[in-house]
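[audit] Reproducing an earlier prediction to check determinism. Same input, same settings, fresh worker. If the tokens differ from the archived copy the diff job will pick it up downstream; this log only records the rerun itself.
[audit] input (118 residues):
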Amino acid sequence: MVGAMLLTAAPPVYLGRVKFNLAQALHDKVLYADADMNKADWMTTGAAAIGVLGIGAGLWWADYAAAILISISILRDGVRNFRGAVGALIDTQAHTVDDSAPDPLNRRIDIYLKGLPW
């Protein structure tokens, strides 16, 4: 069972990294969200595998602990993505793809507009 979990975790690891790099280069938030979901997929699979191994080792609570960690991760991702989507809808200041900082293009546009003779 653990072997099957780890085999299904390999493609999302690779695809998530490739999509993340492309999302940064293209400034594509949809592709970034998809890469983030790939990351959540392999992390969920890893936590489930650890839970199954814990049960095999006699720790009856390991599967429950893995389920709690998975649910917390899913809720955190959902809140972060929801906040970014609502922020985009209500026309807040543009941010980078990962919503960590204001987009540097905003400053360049302001400098250009202030330099115009009008």
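[audit] rerun output stored. Observation attached for the diff report: The chain has a mean pLDDT of 87.
[audit] end
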